[in-house]
Amino acid sequence: MRPFETSFGALAARELILVAVRDGEVVGWGECVADADPYYSSETTATAWHMLSRYLVPAILNRTIGGARELHALWHRVRGHRMAKAALEMAAWDLEARLAGQPLCERLGAPARPIPAGVSIGIQPSIDALVARVEAERAEGYQRIKIKIKPGWDVEPVRAIRERLGAIPLMVDANAAYSPTDAAHLRQLDDFDLMMIEQPLDYDDLVQHARLQSALGTAICLDESITGPRLAADAIELGACRIINIKPGRMGGFGPSIAVHDLARAAGVPVWHGGMLESGIGRAANLHLSTLPGFSLPGDVAASRRYFVPDLIEPPIEVAPDGTVAVPAGPGIGVRPVDERVRRFSIQSERFTS
Ligand code: NPG
Questions:
Q1: N or C: lower Cβ tally within 10 Å for the chain?
Q2: CA distance readout (Å), 167 to 149, 195, 203
Q3: Domain that holds residue 73
């Protein structure tokens, strides 16, 4: 994997869980976005594995299940562990759509459309290196640039990009690296016409985000804070954000993500699809969800070769010269992993039979 640095650390390898659910000869695939370390979220690959094998899979074995939407009721006693739930739910959505012979987006009620792609650039060793990366990504066609910021790497990198590259669509992502006392410092970012500032404060601090949003001209987008429809509704009511980043892993699956999409749309709050350094399996599912009409801003749905060579799928997900990514065609999520690559990279597997 190509290294990626955020305010919470540098990632040089990606450990992930793939989930396959089978009905006869038809197989649905899901990917868990939890990482090996609990830095973005409290979940890890180890906790997700434990929850899947001990609770989430046993809760659905030996039952007749009509569709992916039914899973949440069977898991209602399991608190949290949203990334683990989302992985199995994604596989169930893929299976459901494949059994129906439909692309997943159509199953969700939206026709396939090209998805505008943004790109996320990790913290770089120098401002010159950052500007060069931004230029290279713009040349690939990406429709908006997101740069990671943290205290000590914020106003100056943004200023340099504006001075050298002009009025490109630009946003910043802090991954919760600031505190409410940084408000005056963050206000300096108002001078740069940013599309948004993503998750400046802590993940459980809606009230302080609302205070900060009222002090800033730039829109706040919440990511880590929005773990489901209730918090999305609270954040909108409080004025804690003007934009929401939707990641099914963070919300517990497509079901809650669609609920957040719908309520944000009704409130006039735009959403976009986040990325969690997924392989092509997770990225394909993200593209299908992104076809819903409220996803009106470019998503972190960038090409998988930015992170993985090779990807688990073939052909990999690519960005077109106009900065859009095509939703994979065919039944379900439209892609499946290459068996040999899954075998080559697997460190552990477990099988359950009904
Ligand atoms: O293209 O998948 C991608 C990466 C997008 O920056 C991105 N993701 O905070 O949203 C984020 C960040 C992230 C990366 C989060 C890794 C968690 C793990």
A1: C
A2: 19, 11, 30
A3: 4-107
